[in-house]
Amino acid sequence: MAAEKSSIKIITLIAADGSVFEVEPNIVKEMKTVQSYIDELDQNTVSIPLPNVFGNDLAMIIEYCKKHASEEETKEAKEEFDFEFVKRMKSDDKLRLLQAASYLNMESFLQFMAKAIAAEIENQSVEFVRDYFQIESDFTPEEEAELRKENEWAFK
Amino acid sequence: MKKRNSCSANGLSIQHLYYDILVRIFMNLNVVELSIVSMVSKSWNHISRDPLLWAKLDLSRISPNAFNIPSVPEAWSDTNSSNKLTTLLKYALSLSNYNTTCIVFNYFIYLTDAHLVFVAERTPNLKRLVLPFSGKLSSVGVKTAMKSWRDLQSITITSVVKSRTIFSAIRMYYQDIIELKFTCNFEIRQGELLVKYTPNLRALSLRNVMVNLRALLNILNSLEKLEEVNICHSLIWDRVNGKVETYTIHDVRNRVNLSLLQKLIFCQRNRCLMCKNVNNINPRRQPYVHFEDLWHQDEIRSLGH
Fold this sequence. Notes:
The complex is a heterodimer of chains A (156) and B (305).
Chain A: H1 2-5, E1 10-15, E2 20-23, H2 25-28, H3 32-40, E3 45-50, H4 55-69, H5 75-88, H6 91-104, H7 107-121, H8 126-133, H9 141-150
Parallel strand pairs in A: 1-3
Antiparallel strand pairs in A: 1-2
Helix pairs in contact in A: 6-7
Chain B: H1 19-26, H2 31-37, H3 42-47, H4 51-54, E1 56-58, H5 79-96, E2 102-104, E3 110-112, H6 113-122, E4 128-130, E5 134-136, H7 139-148, E6 154-157, H8 163-172, E7 179-182, H9 188-197, E8 203-205, E9 210-212, H10 213-222, E10 228-230, E11 235-240, E12 243-247, H11 249-253, H12 258-261, E13 264-265, H13 273-276, H14 288-296
Parallel strand pairs in B: 1-2, 2-4, 3-5, 4-6, 6-7, 7-8, 8-10, 9-11, 10-13
Antiparallel strand pairs in B: 11-12
Helix pairs in contact in B: 2-5, 5-6, 6-7, 7-8, 8-9, 9-10
């Protein structure tokens, strides 16, 4: 990895609200957006502004990365952590974290969040999903009625 | 995605969720939930049709809350349930837009000719078919379905269909079957059918069922392209002079040469609990979900789901 080759010791991430996080290079390995930034530079320290990620969310993402980057942790401990991590999040948090994961281009965290969000809409109604994702239907009343007729089974 | 009015308090709106992120979320949903998200809006409807989401249509993953299927066979044999299944298939397959290459029926649904033919007409590119435990399939129904499939390669065969019926359909439409799994007993007759009509068979699973020794030796000796035969937890038996004899894996070893032996996958623990239970296929002794698990799992990865 490029991060290992270069002499960077500490990376400073600056969130949208100005809060600052100092992390070791192995923590940001998963953040491809950050990584590509680092790869272009050849300095001992770098600070990277992340205008699309809020401090609270970044703190959570770093916590996740630390746990998963650790070689001492067992697979079970990581799974246990994942479980608690999801439990701790509110619905709104999940959507924000997903967007952050997408912006930071973090493959496995993105996968993880997609699964957590899918769990939110399991067994839910169309109305719930619209409400959760803040989407207004753009179907005409006729189209909506037609869809509902085709899917009567879904409306028990 | 289309932009709409609202923005959440933090200034990041869900409208910015890109197509591929939504596909990632949708990848975790089952067919019922996919149908729900397809009704959310026009753009979501469009995304819910992404080919990635429909390559495998898995009805076994439907949760009982969304679509109540009791865990007993023939629970869905009444007209009302049958119609409900048709409606679900109709909508799901309209979203799939001919992109489905693998269909796994729910183990407990009651499959009729009408369902199978309906599915077949909308899945011309099907490669793998996993049949449910119960239903009523006729020879005409199976043949009509088989006519639509031109790339079928792999089937999990259950007691829902007679071997004669399915193999004559395979022969009629020259299906080049390379993988098979039987969840019903494997007799001399089945061995003969395989040798005749699936000459290119590469993988065969006869897991946790009763397997006739002569049938097993026949396919091992005759099917040259065979690479793997899974007989984990199965009971090998034969009728000799009117008497039923059972055979251990050691007995089988003595009857085939080394190169054929290497193709066999068997239970290393020999006489484990599952091995002992094979001739106890008695619903009063075991819940049906146990059989559903057997149907799901396989040591040959491509035959599990």
